[in-house]
Design a protein that fits this description.
There is one protein chain. It contains 3 helices and 8 strands. Helix content is 28%, strand content 43%. This is Orotate phosphoribosyltransferase. It comes from Robiginitalea biformata (strain ATCC BAA-864 / DSM 15991 / KCTC 12146 / HTCC2501).
Amino acid sequence: MYLESPAVQLEKGPEATFAFLSDLSNFEQLMPENIQTFEVLGPDTFRFALKGMPEIVLERKSEDPPNQLVLGAASDKLPFTLTADIREISAGKSEVQLTFEGTFNAMMAMMVKGPITNFLGTLSTNLARV
C-alpha cells in the first residue's frame, strides 16, 4: 500500500525543515489531538499511540540531509515506512510531502487505509503550522 499526503509549503529552508524533522521529539507537535502516548525512546526511536489504535514504535531507517528522512516500524509484524521528502521552493522556503508505504494483506489494507490517510493529512497540516 502506498499513500501520499498533500505537499505543504513551509517558511523554512530545507536545512531547517530537515533539522526539525530529524529531532524526533518534534513529532509530538505534529501528532493528532487524539494522541494518548508519545515517548522518545532514543535519538533514533519514538513510540506513540492514538486512541483506539495499537501502540507504534518508529525508528529512523535512513536519511539524506536535507532532502529526505525515512522512518519505519521497529517491529516486523506490520512493516511500513513513513518518508518525508523535502525540496527547496525558493530561498528560505521548502515543500514537504509525506509518503506511507507498507506491506499488508488486502483485508488489513482496507481497514487501515482511511486512518493512515487521515494521519498523514494531520501530520502535514500540523507541520505547516509549526
